Automatic annotation (TrEMBL):
Entry's EC annotation: 5.1.3.15
Top-level division of the source organism's lineage: Bacteria
Enzyme category, top tier: isomerase
InterPro entries on file: Aldose_1/G6P_1-epimerase, G6P_1-epimerase, Gal_mutarotase_sf_dom, GH-type_carb-bd
Pfam name, any one: Aldose_epim
Record keywords, A-Z: Isomerase
Name of encoding gene: yeaD
GO biological process, one term: carbohydrate metabolic process
Keyword Isomerase: yes
Identification of the protein by name: Putative glucose-6-phosphate 1-epimerase
Family according to the record: Belongs to the glucose-6-phosphate 1-epimerase family.
Example of a GO MF term: carbohydrate binding
């Protein structure tokens, strides 16, 4: 995503500025190790570009930036549920305005921390008190950590995901390993299936891999690189690409957008609101994803 031509509305440091795209404020990071963009709307990482490389994250050219609808691409924060088990789809965190808590800088990179707390706009959707802290570490690789804290007097359950859209050269040329064999196939009525150790694609995919390795790797020969996604705090890895027929039905995605994106998502999967991870009052849980690349 092009960030350099956006109007600057605040300078926070030599490496960090606040810019604006339409109705959304974006924390723009420019560091010798990498550049990045993080929207305050949704706590949404939009771009991460290591020095001398193409962006590792894919953004839809037709995504809305109206501060009402979810942003298409980057790393949406899906919480307090994943998928369509309640409304809105993928929860409300990705359509809330987050607060910039702090930023730290060093020779190794920049860390930006955002926060979201329960309030009137969340309690009518989900009747629990919470606090979220999102830490985005931008350096030679990208690490995103979502801290989830129960600030209520009641126990509650949650699911969610860091829904990373990876930028690729050609969907039909990539190969992916490390996702494990067993998966729930959302395109086959949630049938439990067994896959091969290496995945290549010739059609759409929407799978929940239930026992992924610590690292999932995707070889992308068209861009001459391998992207590694390392997740913690999750119970599954979701792999998704809509392919041509579904992409044409997604209003905020170009018809050919599926060709250059692939989602590998750090996911806490639950089939219903009453399951997932349980937090007692005062307890917390951290979900992370770390994304890096190296030349093939």
């Amino acid at each position: 995503m092009e960030l350099h031509n956006l109007p600057v509305i605040a300078n926070l440091s030599d490496n960090i500025t606040i810019v604006e795209k339409e109705k959304i404020k974006i924390v723009r990071v420019v560091h010798p190790k990498a550049t990045a963009g993080i929207a305050l709307f949704g706590g949404h990482v939009l771009s991460y570009q290591p020095a001398g490389q193409p962006d590792l994250l894919w953004m839809s050219e037709t995504s809305l930036f109206d501060s009402e609808h979810p942003i298409r691409g980057g790393i949406p924060v899906c919480w307090p549920w994943f998928g369509g088990i309640s409304s809105p789809n993928h929860g409300f965190a990705r359509i809330q305005e987050w607060q910039l808590l702090e930023h730290r800088e060093s020779e190794e990179g920049v860390v930006v921390s955002l926060g979201l707390k329960s309030g009137e706009s969340t309690l009518h959707i989900w009747p629990y008190q919470f606090e979220l802290r999102l830490h985005i570490a931008v350096g030679s690789d990208l690490k995103v950590s979502l801290e989830i804290i129960n600030t209520d007097e009641k126990v509650w359950n949650f699911s969610g995901a860091l829904h990373s859209y990876l930028n690729i050269g050609d969907i039909q040329k990539i190969s992916t390993t490390g996702m494990g064999k067993e998966y729930i196939d959302k395109l086959q009525n949630n049938q439990i299936c067994q896959g091969e150790p290496t995945l290549t694609l010739t059609e759409g995919i929407d799978r929940i891999y239930t026992a992924p390795d610590a690292q999932v790797q995707m070889a992308d020969p068209a861009l001459n690189r391998t992207i590694t996604v390392e997740n913690t705090g999750h119970n599954s890895a979701v792999l998704w690409n809509p392919w041509a027929s579904l992409a044409q039905q997604i209003n905020d995605m170009p018809d050919d957008g599926y060709k250059t994106m692939f989602c590998i998502e750090s996911t806490i999967f639950s089939p219903c609101l009453s399951a997932g991870i349980t937090l007692q009052p005062g307890e917390q849980h951290t979900l992370t994803t770390a994304i890096s690349s190296q030349n093939c």
